[in-house]
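Recap slide: Zinc-dependent metalloprotease, sequence and predicted structure.
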Amino acid sequence: MNKYLQVNTYLKAAFFVAATVVTSCASKKQAEHTVTLKTSTTAGGSSASATIGTGKKEGIKKFSDLVGKAKADSGLFATYKIDGKYYFEIPDSLIGREMLVVTRFVKTPAGLKSFGQQYGGEELNDQVWKWERHDKQIFVRVPSYSVRADSTSDMYQSVKNSNLDAVLASFDIKAYNKDTTGVLIDVTDLYNGDVAALGISDNIKKQYKISGLDNTRSFIDTIKSFPINIETRTLKTYRAGASPTDNSTAALTFELNTSMLLLPKTPMKPRLNDNRVGFFGQQQVDYGTDAQKAERTGYIHRWRLEPKDEAAYARGELVEPKKQIIYYIDPATPKKWVPYLIAGVNDWNKAFEAAGFKNAIVGKVAPTAKEDPEFSTEDARYSVLRYFASDVQNAYGPHISDPRSGEILESHVGWYHNVMSLLRNWFFIQTAAVNPNVRMAKFSDEQMGELIRFVSSHEIGHTLGLPHNFGSSYAYPVDSLRSKTFTDKHGTAPSIMDYARFNYIAQPGDGVTHLYPQIGEYDLWSVKWGYTYFTGNKSPKQEKQILDVWTMEKAGNPLYYYGRQGTSIDPRLQSEDLGDNAMKASRYGIANLKRILPNIEKWTFQTGEDYDDLETIYNEVIGQFNRYIGHVTMNIGGMNENFKTYDQQGPIYGFVNKNLQHDAVVFLNEQLFNTPAWLINRRELSKFDNGVTIGRIKALQVNAIANVLNASRLARMFDNETKSGASAYTVNNLLTDLRAGIFSKNAPDAFKRNLQRGYIENLKVLLNEDVSRSFPGVTSAQLANMGLTPINISLSDIRPMVRAELVKISAGLPKSGDAIIKAHYDDLRLRIKEALNPTRPIVNVPGSPQTGIYEDLNENGLEY
């Protein structure tokens, strides 16, 4: 349930760093400096802008005269508060050192709605700074790491010449310290100013019509220095034209915390990325390699784990790391959930054991103010699971890494209180047919706690560098998920990083009771691959040679397959699915939904409560059914993607088997295009439905048609026919099979009539509408990589095939029936005639397969 979508690596390459620096002229008596900056900075893609100071230039004072009796707060820099101003004493030894700067919310206004940046603890910006001295000034510069070359490379100087670090801010030196090994600067305006790197995001500014910072209602609360970091707490009030709750103040006030954390002097040795093993990572153009091109290299994101005892580690013994990964649980977390959240963290220890480490990770209760008065959940030295009082049904696991090496430095997991509602609804819908323990309006604390533990493990996995592995659940045969012995050992998928959810396949009588995903075979393998420590000071390339051997040993074994998120090509890589055959799995799932739906009212009964919960769960049934339809549809025109290197045989891309594609259409005809009357339970619908049942079913059916007839899908099918001939499932096969299901010989009911009209309208769009779309900066190959296979419809075989199909449908329509049936067939003929001989512009049809505009459905499958 990670809120942050992974950006396709091809798209990442389309963004570039741009920096503009403007400095003003200086007179003999007065100097103005205005620094304006736009820059892409770290892997988070943060932007920053700053305007620092206009005023009379003062001479450099004696340290004792300026500081007087002010007490130093010693740490990374000694800091001072003098007459309401804040000063940094920067030692020469830290000039040029890189520091990670992270700004987070501490407190936010009530009702703030900016997804991903609205609660205390959520990150606003991260950026790397370098403090640089030039004559009588100190500059803050923002390094870029998108281009690199090793310092020993012939290209090193050339890269430096075309990769100049942007200047964020400048400061006059106010004094030299007593032994002249450092300088004193005034940082008040930096932290109290409207600097994007230290303030709220542009999205929030636009959403609430913020015109600027009001300095009269803003201040620095505290600046505290620690051995490797400085923590700055500010209150900032912005002039705002809109407010989430109260426009009378014409302002929004935020409390913010900015951490400046010293990065390691020697970056961690990076580990080179491999597309066959899933890790978050970063890319850069490396001009220091011996490749005969500008080579793009990638490093994975991972924590720095080094054994305390290298000799014991080398002997194969489990060894504790020099520095343990620690996650603190937010003190604001309800006490009864804390043990389950901690268990979700600690569950990963068995994966780290596969990499040779014991006690590598631990969850802890955050210390109280009495136990540690300096502890802060915003402090960048600490990783924290933050608990948000929110109605958002989600949780997410981000991390912040060193852009020089990929070392993960800290993480703040976001946990929204209302994720429990999502868990309750899904666990009920997916398991109630076989699980009596959830047939109630409210789960026991033990049951909800186990669900929370599962989500905690999943989100912690993200913070360890692991992305979603949407290909994992395909490894387990469907029938194995009906086995108690198998599921007790393996859960629902080899990776908890899949969206495998809960076992909807198990049937009553199977005896299956372990219904959760768990940390599995793939997770142990990926942690071993990413975190194994190699002794002997091997280079990243030497380590890669060893890792390649490991990867080759696992190649072809579905338990260790990594399937990326971000493509709609491969039907194995789907969210919320289980098993190796979507049609078989979905039939089992539908059989269970048919058992659940008639019992919803009984199983969710609450004395004195209205029927809101009945409606919610009923709509969840419809939503789950719709997921099954989507899982099946992905097989049509699908391609399997298996990343390989030159030394591996076989294709990377291969079309889905013809019989599987045919089976998918048979399933749709059987389960959806043949009206799913089981969804219409009149007794339960009468408690909340106010006349939209036909619309519910129509939305399901028409959206499915639009998905099947998607132009990108058809493009792949034509490509398959060209390459594979008779072994391909062709567009003609598809249209023939759809016609057989949608235009069966029986007189159509109201639902089937809607379906037939929707089918004709979608064909009409394919035949007549100009559906060309542009994606500036994105190539055709990049679109295809995401599943948006490009096709020029007007020049393709789509229109001839559609025209022929419409003629066949028209010729086969009956000419008799009762009044409504006859009117329906007459209407279809007119629609087809208009499609073949248009006399008016074609407008976008709800459910258009080209525009991507389906009939609007809310998350539960309702049409509005």
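The first strand starts at residue 30 and ends at 32.
Residues 266-566 form a domain with the Collagenase (Catalytic Domain) fold (CATH 3.40.390).
(End of recap.)
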